[in-house]
């Protein structure tokens, strides 16, 4: 049986993406760190949509985790038709003052694990007559964000990598889509320890995880290359392109410092 594998799937956008695939009749594999949350999510999806669901607890901060996920799918007989690289996190603050280990862990989860999973699962995806790779970046991918510098840089990497890979795979069965959400009603701001000024600004334009997930899965099935969710976020990306980079950086710094 074919499955869609989703990382960061125990809550937030990842869980909503899993539910959006399941609502369309796809079997799903859920990956995240928390086993209890995964078990609850899997049970709810089975009940609500009647599809096959399995889950595995893995910390993608461990460089060996992607290979373990591939081995799990192979040993379980799970044919992966879609890979959703959603797992990621951010940390706000001045680069020089944040612990180096935490920033490197962010790079591992947001970039290195994504690349490793993509490389490992591509041969499996290519076996399918039609397959999908969905990478979740961020509207932060379109500009430097002072005091969120590493996070924004990792998401810029995800976007650029996705577009390059899409071209490389243009003559295969694998379609690559990169979705760039803006502020979303998840736990991101708390984990990133974003200050009250940025949180207050985000609340004005927050999208729900369900709305982001629906847009992401729809764009993936349509074979779109790149999607910014939400009209405000699309406008923001356009303004960043239109105005001097220094102005965008000054504005962002005023929110996150």
Please state the CA-atom Rg, rounded to the nearest Å: 18 Å
* Unreliable segments of 5+ consecutive residues: none
> What fraction of residues sit in β-strands?
15-25%
User: In whole angstroms, how far apart are the ends?
Assistant: 49 Å
CATH class term: Alpha Beta
H/E topology pattern: EHEHEHEHEHEHHHEHH
Please identify which CATH superfamily we are dealing with: NAD(P)-binding Rossmann-like Domain
Secondary-structure-derived class: alpha/beta
Say what the CATH topology is. Rossmann fold
Number of strands: 7
Compute the number of helices.
10
Biggest sheet character: 7 strands, parallel
- Mean residue pLDDT: 90
CATH A-level architecture: 3-Layer(aba) Sandwich
Task: Characterize the structure shown.
Helix content is 53%, strand content 16%. By secondary structure, it is an alpha/beta fold. It has a single domain (3-256), classed as Rossmann fold. Strands 3-2-1-4-5-6-7 form a seven-stranded parallel sheet, sandwiched between helices. The longest helix is centred in the middle third of the chain and has 27 residues, at 100-126.
Helices and strands, with pairings:
Layout: E1 2-7, H1 12-23, E2 27-32, H2 35-49, E3 53-57, H3 65-76, E4 79-85, H4 100-126, E5 131-136, H5 149-168, E6 174-180, H6 188-192, H7 196-203, H8 209-222, E7 226-228, H9 231-242, H10 245-256
Parallel strand pairs: 1-2, 1-4, 2-3, 4-5, 5-6, 6-7
Helix pairs in contact: 1-2, 1-8, 3-4, 4-5
Organism: Flaviaesturariibacter aridisoli
Keywords: Oxidoreductase
GO molecular function: oxidoreductase activity
